[in-house]
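queue> holo job accepted (CU-O-CU linkage)
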Amino acid sequence: CRVRNYKFDVVMRNTSRLCSSKQIVTVNGKFPGPTLYAREDDNVLVRVVNHVKYNVSIHWHGVRQLRTGWSDGPAFITQCPIQPGQSYLYNFTLTGQRGTLLWHAHILWLRATVHGAIVILPKRGVPYPFPKPHKEIPIVLAEWWKSDTEAVINEALKSGLAPNVSDAHTINGHPGPASNCSLQGGFTLPVDAGKTYLLRIINAALNEELFFKIAGHKLTVVEVDALYVKPFSIETIVIAPGQTTNVLVTADKNSGKYLVTASPFMDAPIAVDNATATATLHYTGTLSNSPTTITIPPPKNATQIANKFTDSLRSINSNTFPAKVPLTIDHKLLFTVGLGVNPCPSCKAGNGSRVVASINNVTFVMPTTALLQAHYFNIKGVFTTDFPPNPPTIFNFTGSPPSNMATMTGTKVYKLSYNDTVELVMQDTGIIAPENHPVHLHGFNFFVVGRGLGNYNAKNDSKSFNLVDPVERNTVGVPAGGWVAIRFRADNPGVWFMHCHLEVHTTWGLKMAFLVDNGKGPNQSLLPPPTDLPKC
Ligand code: C2O
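queue> job finished
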């Protein structure tokens, strides 16, 4: 294994999209940011230098950070932010991991423009479990705001109202040829007839689950969240913020240009965004002025198209890639996830109440000392360990909304012993927004053993859990008006954030953390903090 050295300079850069330009926060001046390449088991060192006026931290989304929680990145969870003029060396090893992940800023909404791909190749000489592609291309989906992102952010924080909807979605940084401003051409994917390509698709958008498709070409799905799946072929994939999907595309036409689209799935009515990002698949030798074969993106409420994709996901579960689903469970947890309204006399908007989000009616309050530091140095008063394992009132989705919509605030964590097994059912309360909550767990991958609509019924629904070849991932959609069940083993000591990856919901409080104690054996303890760990 090698050591991979990277330097991420966080700098402002004047960037123009949609026929106008503005200053944005970037890594190394790029939007999207640079791709981080490594191989399985490599040691990655990234020096992040903060040259902007904002506090910064970077998260390596999906990297397990075994015993190295100090490098995980979420501000005030595992580290204090890197202050202007300061730097921090993230140091982690990609133990047993390969595939596509993403890195992004993990403080406020900076990840709107501060994000990029992580490509982890298998160990040298180890093949993929599918035919070797001719070329591999990262495809980063995101958003663009014409107005100042900081202003958008501050407004949402102040009012508790939805942020201004983005003005465009982007594919590798560009809204594309079908956008209102056609002066900027968009991303082009050159292909040779007859060859097969691996697209490493990443959704780095703040608040939009997206459909992705290519006119006239099928997509063969081979991996999600850096974990191989049984290959299947499909026209349209759906991908939530924080998720990644690898697909094979065979250039099975002779020539031509084909439209690639990324379009929203299931917007909340309060944030209606219809913008479709486009790119072009371009066969070598096709004249640039020849017409493009188009495709119509799915309607944004095309739940069946989304379900067709989600229901097809299975882990490989072979001798080489066994699915190690925990079969005995130490902690059975039921979390309601959702939005509510809380009184807020000081709020300007919303008639003295504001939108909040919660898990089991706890609206998580960010601490001012990082939780991991408080845990490691035994600093009292930063968090409590009384995160409720069950909802405070029995939730009934089909009946009247739960009478207790009000939330309590707190910095509560749920405590696990090393190697404990967890079954977590997340029930959407679906009162306000008809959209999935893509919940991301730091520090672990988990198996998605079940999923359904309506109320979760422990007795009946658990009978149909897939404990053989469920898909394994790090971010899962809690279906709007339904539930999802996941299982994982707490084999990574530290403090691990779990939150909705729709940034606006995280801001409102849809987040919590698991605290995993050290084990007693060798290599079962959190490593000591690095000496340059930022101070609060
Ligand atoms: Cu990709 Cu906690 O985030």
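queue> The longest strand covers residues 3-17.
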